Amino acid sequence: MNRLFAARRPLGLAALAIVAWVLPYRLNVYWISVADTALLFALLAVGLGLVMGIAGQVNLAQVAFFGVGAYGVGILTTAHGFGFWLAALLAMVAAVCAGLVVGLPALRVQSHYLGIVTLGLAVAFLDWVTNAPVTGGDSGLSGIPTPPLFGVGLSSQYLYYYLELIVLAAGLAFGYFVVRTSLGRRLRAMRDDALAAGAAGAEIRVLRMIAFVLASVYGGAAGVLYAGLIHYIAPETFSIADMFLLLAMVIIGGRQSLWGCVVGAIGLTVAQQELINLAAYAQLGYGMLVVAVVVFAPTGLAGVPSRVRRWRLRRRSGISAAALGSFSGVPSSGRTGAVLEVSGLVMRFRGVIALDRVSLRAEPGEILGIVGPNGSGKTTLFNVISGLYRPSGGRVDLDGRVISGSRPWRISHHGVARTFQHLRLFGNLTVLDNVRMAMDRTRSWWSWRYVFWPVGVWRHERELSRQAGAVLDAFGLAAFAGALPHSLPYGIQRRVEIARAMASAPRLLLLDEPAAGLNGDEQRQLAEIVRAIRASGVTVVLIEHNMGLVMSLCDRVVVLDSGAVIASGVPASVAAQPAVLEAYLGTTTLPSEAS
Amino acid sequence: MIRRSGAAAALSAAAIAILAAACSAPGSSSGGSGGSGSGGSTGAASGPIKIAVVDAQSGSSSDLGQFEWRGVKLAVDQVNKAGGIDGRKIQLTLFDDQGDPTVGTELARKIASEGFTAMLGTAESSVTLAMAPILQAEHIPNITSGQSTKLLKLGSPYLFLNGPTGLTYDSTLAKYLVQTKGYKKFALLTNNDSYGAGEDSAFTSSLKSLGITPVAAEVVPADQTNMTPQLNTIRSRNPQVLFIGAEEAQSGLTVKQARSLGMTAVIAEGAPAGTPLFLSTAGVANADGTIVSSPYLGNGVDAASKAFAAAYTAAYGTAPELHGAKAYDGAEVMISALKACHACTGLALASAVRAVHRTGLLGTFAYDSQGVGIFSTSIGIIKNGTIEPVSS
Amino acid sequence: MQSFFQTLVSGLSFGAVYSLIALGFSLVYRTMGLVNFAHGAVLMTGAYLASTFYLSARLPFAVAVPAAVLATGVVGLLIERVLRPLESKDVDLMLIGTIGAGTVLEAVAILIWTSSGRGVPSPVRAAPLDVGGVRIPVYNLVVIAVAAVTMVLLTLFLQRTKRGAAMQAVAMDPEAATAVGIHVGRSNAVAFAIGAGLAALAGSLASPMLFVSPTMGDSLGIQGFAAAILGGFGSIPGAIVGGLGIGVIGSFAAQWFQGYSDLVTFVVFTVLVMVRPTGVFGEKTVNRA
Predict the structure, then answer these.
(1) Is there a contact between B380 and B387 (Cβ–Cβ < 8 Å)?
(2) Which phi-psi region, left, alpha or beta, contains residue B240 (left: φ > 0; alpha: ψ -120 to 50)?
(3) I want to staple C103 with a disulfide (CB 3.0 to 4.6 A). Which of A31, A76, A287, A333 is the partner?
């Protein structure tokens, strides 16, 4: 069935290409201008889909990027006499600069905060073009020239359609290239869980800027084409109402699918034209449609087929845990384990001391257990080691190199991987992509290849897929490669998280309560996996409440209480210390069966 | 393997499509511009004469659009009832431009593709500015209600105004205020849309030619409803006259807020000040004494306006105002031209419009080469909610 | 100096209105975790209802406003019912979903009242007070006073009444609140209705100073939301401080930068948010992760 689908896709694309190519023959002057507008909105929507749907950055300034592109061309051609394409190039540069400016707040704020800030910046842009003499104020700029192409003036709406079609096709192809490969995977991972993505080596801040730059490139290109199409620009075209319309296109079409964005844009543009003389009723219908889509089909039109498919799949069989293969050893990474040295670590939150001069050491080929009652600072310790928190005092060294205070992605690149107490898998990435994302050890600046050396990206991608396949095989997860994590049983999700952590070929692995929620059988498998990881030379530090597991698995144990180390040593001796018993139970009975 | 053959099929299909497209260009069948009613010169066709009315029917300027539509429809209904033009009826179609120039450009193409002979509207200069080049390329004459001097700079032989330009309004007003009333301290409050910006420059230059520099010239965003910060600045300069250059509602609000700050300066304004929306927004008491420059001061000034007002009131149940009168006059000019040239189209019709010489509600239309037909306004003063002409 | 104080007075009067808007945003957000972009449209509905009661039904202003607040509160209950599935969704969906709801309200307003808008005469006809050359319209004082009283009443309601305490509990920990027998759904509905009532109050108080039209909520909503963020989203003192702050910044930006006032206001706002993302009083987040 999968193969059939694969065969159908290029055929479908070809059919679509033919329809798009012959469509103008069927359209009159008016409808071709509608089609031209629709294609521009599609390009804009793809940009918005990339930043919002793929990278998860709320961006209500897409319409301003559109405006910067259009006004850039308008000002340079009419006031300074530049040729169209030179002006277009400079306008694109301006749009990218606008993308960087609008993206800047994303480094500090997210979610609805980012929403209002970007909206505010869009309002500010609109205000500027309405007032500035250089933009012609409210009456706008007229007399923008037609772009010439190979000596042919594109004054015909019909020829322009093909120019736009080619740009949109190129934009879509590039968009899909990004989304399906390394960069897009990181962006999607960041969208699903920025914290986990950072811990898996993604440079969150750079990625956010890249997302805004991508959006601004699409927005700017649409603006350039718009100026060449209409020959006239005025502030109304870049209003907040248009921004919300664009947002509706993306949400209704399906923000996580670039095709969805295109369908949404074309559909709403055509609907708007059809209903132009019924404005109030059209507005009513449009508002209700938006609410209905958000409530009943949050993934938009593009998400409907996969929802139906998943629903049918679930009804037919569901994914059974029986498909779980057996663990067959850790693929060797060629890296050796690292020495973790924590010395005098202090972590304060607004006067509350979470870690109080914690010192400990873990050696390669060793499993160090960290135990202690709830609230004793175990997870805080992990968060400091993996760079989520900056310590208030003390330091963390890895093989003698200070890593404390570094950002999570840098610590990940130093060879530290972790799992989380509450699962933090990337929910909308397949199991395979979860693993590939962590396996990808390139830095963000590596992404220049997308523009200048796409073949390099492609090769890298093939290599990643091969290695990721090996990891999935080794962890017995091959059967779930295409599944989304939350469709899997809990125990399998736990294993996926460990596989993801190991995919980055770490030298130090931090496991935060890996046995929580596992049944007896799964716990035995877990112990087997952790021992194999130790055997491969990786240093393992593990937080666990299940004392039975700790006793049997760990080589040494450190006990934390109220943020301080109260005992350490081999498991048997630690368990016998009165201070430990006191901390755990407030009495001096043996805590071996506590969970 | 299946995948590869699919891709090959796709490629060859696309190649065929490209070849097919290369053979003939789409849309080229009708001389590059498509549509049917363009480029012609004589009206040999039968059936109704199609005229498009483009005005905002939604959004903040929909009131204006509604007034314009009523004026046009009244004129056309009258001529149709009297037998039409050479036995052919005029068929009006209303399009909503939403006050958005981009929508305007799309409508211009729609009008061209659907074979309209002429267009009336829009009420906003910025929309007309965007549409004019397309209408020119498609040879469709257009009588607009815009008054921006930028319209003249387009130099389109197909574009005509149904009233005076902003400069005419403002120079008449400035002359009256300075020379007749002897005021010397002027303050300007204009908004930043194309109407307000046009008023700002027109009134400033009118004052300048009379040797006066305003004591304050404040600008508000067109969508701002709180004008007090700018009014504070103006109040501190203590002007005798406050000139307002903004649309009806914003003008009314400005007057109301100025009075609530205790400002007593005389209010002076162009056409918007005479409208019902201005009066209701400002409040009758606040609007008292406002000096208005308008080509159409009221419904009872002369016999023509009385007849128009009676017919308008009979048709719509409310009394007309300036915009309805302007649009009515514009439609009458178009009808005269169509009659004169026996329902011709394109450039011939444009020439016929330019040749029209008739007295309407706003005065006597005699078009110059730039498409302006009316060159004077009258001064009125608002008393108890109605405009009275001042004796000059 | 006189001009400075004059602008300050104007900024504070509009700031009082923004505070009320921000208060509605914050109350809804902290109780149910919903970022309600339809708030501006709810405000517009309230303003239209009040102006209809006042102008068409000829009720005294002091009766028309409370009537509009109540009616809008009821409308709020209906909207909450529609938006309820959004409360647990991510911010993109909330954003566009509530914008969609706002669009519906706007369309309904256009169908009922047309899109042209109306001016509302000031209910206070007294001449402006003159304090050392600074003119203070009496109505502005009324607005500030009503806003202040409302905020005190709201605080008392949240702290002293059983229903208010229940809402506070839901805000802090919905699961624990459910465990002690508080009906979270009802609490959310009440919060939304109060939020809608606050919006209606803001809208109807502002309408004699401004202009009632179907789009009046757009910019007021954005300013009010910015005010809530500036003060600390979800915080009641934050809403007050943020509202006054945005009002004063906007007023001085309008006086000094004229047409560019929005540009200045939002650039200043962006910088403030980047310097202090959680606002003056910090976000009172609902923790529903």
Answers:
(1) yes
(2) alpha
(3) A287
Single-letter amino acid, residue C69:
V
Beta strands in chain B (DSSP E): 49-55, 90-96, 118-121, 142-144, 159-161, 186-191, 216-220, 241-245, 266-269, 291-294, 357-359, 364-366, 378-383, 386-389
CB contact under 8 A, A108 and C91: no
Identify whether residues B175 and B73 lie together within a single domain.
no
* Statement to judge: residues A166 and A292 lie in one domain: yes
Q: Would the CB atoms of B220 and C139 count as touching at under 8 Å?
A: no
Q: Give all domains of chain C, ordered by start, each with its CATH number.
A: 2-124+132-275 (1.10.3470)
Q: Could you read off the pLDDT tens digit of each residue along chain B, which spans 392 residues?
A: 344 444 455 555 555 555 444 445 565 444 333 333 444 444 446 789 999 999 988 777 777 888 899 999 999 999 999 999 998 999 999 998 888 887 888 889 889 888 899 999 898 888 898 899 889 999 999 999 998 888 888 889 999 999 999 999 999 999 999 999 999 999 999 998 888 988 999 999 999 999 999 999 999 988 888 898 899 899 989 999 999 999 888 999 999 999 988 899 999 999 888 788 899 889 889 999 999 998 888 777 788 889 999 999 999 998 888 889 999 999 999 999 999 999 899 999 999 999 999 899 998 999 999 999 999 899 999 998 888 888 65
Q: Are B223 and B372 within one domain?
A: no
- Rounded CA separation C255/B219 (Å): 9
**Residue A434 within any structural domain of the chain:** no
The CATH code of the domain that includes A30 is: 1.10.3470
At A14, the pLDDT band (50, 70, 90 cuts) reads: confident
The structure tokens listed for A351 are 């006067």
Contacts for A93 with CB less than 8 Å, ≥ 6 apart: none
How many structural domains is chain A composed of? 2
Q: Tell me, what's the ipTM?
A: 0.88
B328 and B366 share a domain?
Answer: yes
> Residue C276: phi, psi to the nearest 5?
-135, 80
- pTM, two decimals, is 0.87
Whether residue B341 lies inside any domain: the answer is yes
Instruction: Spell out which residues of chain C touch residue B60, defining contact as CB-CB under 8 Å.
Output: 115-117, 213, 215
8 Å CB contact between A547 and A371: yes
Give residue B238's domain range. Answer: 167-294
| Spatial separation of the C-alpha atoms in residues A216 and A210, rounded to whole Å | 10
Q: Which two tokens stand for residue A421?
A: 């107490």
Tokens linked to B292 = 């208005």
State the residue for tokens 């093909």. A162
CB-CB neighbors (< 8 A) of B63 in chain C: 116
Two tokens at A10? 């290029």
Q: Which of B59, B221, B229 sits opposite C115 (nearest CB)?
A: B59
Range B248-268 burial, b when 16+ CB lie within 10 A, else e: bbbbbbbbbbbbbbebebbbb
Rg (CA), chain A: 28
CA distance A342 to chain C (A): 31
Q: Phi and psi dihedrals of B90, rounded to 5?
A: -95, 130
Q: Is A370 left (phi over 0), alpha (psi -120 to 50) or beta?
A: beta
| Residue B228 token pair | 């007090």
CB spacing of A142 vs B192 below 8 angstroms: no
Look up the CATH number of the domain holding residue A572: 3.40.50.300
Q: Are residues B174 and B212 in the same domain?
A: yes
Q: To which residue do tokens 């209904």 refer?
A: B77
**Phi then psi for C74, rounded to 5 degrees?**
-65, -45
Nearest CB to A105; choose among C35, C218, C274: C274
Reported in sequence order, the residue ranges of A200-293 that DSSP labels E, i.e. its strands, are 232-233
pLDDT along chain C (289 residues), means of 10: 84 93 90 86 96 91 94 92 78 84 92 86 84 86 93 89 82 77 84 94 92 89 90 87 93 88 89 84 48
